[in-house]
Amino acid sequence: MKKLISEFKEFAVKGNVIDMAVGVIIGSAFGKIVSSLVNDIIMPVVTLMTGATDFSRLSIVLKEPVDGSQGISLMYGSFLQNVIDFLIIALVIFLMLKCIVKISSLRQKEEKEDMREEKGPTTEELLIEIRDLLKEK
């Protein structure tokens, strides 16, 4: 039992698990922001364009309710709202990753230039310089 507890402590305290937990929490908050963007900003515009009073309630009635029984409807408005939500999340993640890759490549380029300046000229560059000096004599 002690071995199991110590293994669990080692697992739970590792950096990867903590990073993953932070990512899940931030992802959850990000999901709320995107859902608000879709529900409060984008969907009212779409609703205005479609002329529907509530976009998420758009449906096709397959069977009307009869004698107190429930009717059957395809709730395509709710589905479309979820598709739009997904597309916005995918677009935002794509743009964020694109920015991260760009920043990372710029940072790597700067690091290579810094390393080149610290090292001084390469052996090849020195040999070319020596050759040019010998040609002048």
Assign the CATH architecture.
Orthogonal Bundle
Could you give me the name of the CATH homologous superfamily? Large-conductance mechanosensitive channel, MscL, domain 1
The CATH topology comes to: Non-ribosomal Peptide Synthetase Peptidyl Carrier Protein, Chain A
Biggest sheet strand order reads: 1-2
Secondary structure tally: strands: 2
**What percent of residues adopt helix (DSSP H or I)?**
over 70%
Q: What is the highest CATH level, the class?
A: Mainly Alpha
State the order of secondary-structure elements, H for helix, E for strand: HHEEHH
Overall spatial form? elongated
**Intertermini distance:** 82 Å
Number of helices: 4
Low-confidence stretches: none
Mean pLDDT: 81
Determine the structural class based on helices, strands and strand pairing.
Answer: mainly alpha
How many separate domains make up the residues? Answer: 1
Molecular structure report:
By secondary structure, the protein is mainly alpha-helical. The protein has a single domain, classed as Large-conductance mechanosensitive channel, MscL, domain 1 (Non-ribosomal Peptide Synthetase Peptidyl Carrier Protein, Chain A, Orthogonal Bundle). Helix content is 77%, strand content 5%. It contains 4 helices and 2 strands; from the N terminus they run H-H-E-E-H-H. It has helices at residues 2-13, 15-50, 76-119, 123-136; strands spanning 60-63, 72-74. The chain has a two-stranded antiparallel ribbon with strand order 1-2. A hairpin with an 8-residue loop joins strand 1 (60-63) and strand 2 (72-74). Helix 2 crosses helix 3. The longest helix is centred in the C-terminal third of the chain and has 44 residues, at 76-119. The chain is elongated. The termini are far apart. The mean pLDDT is 81.
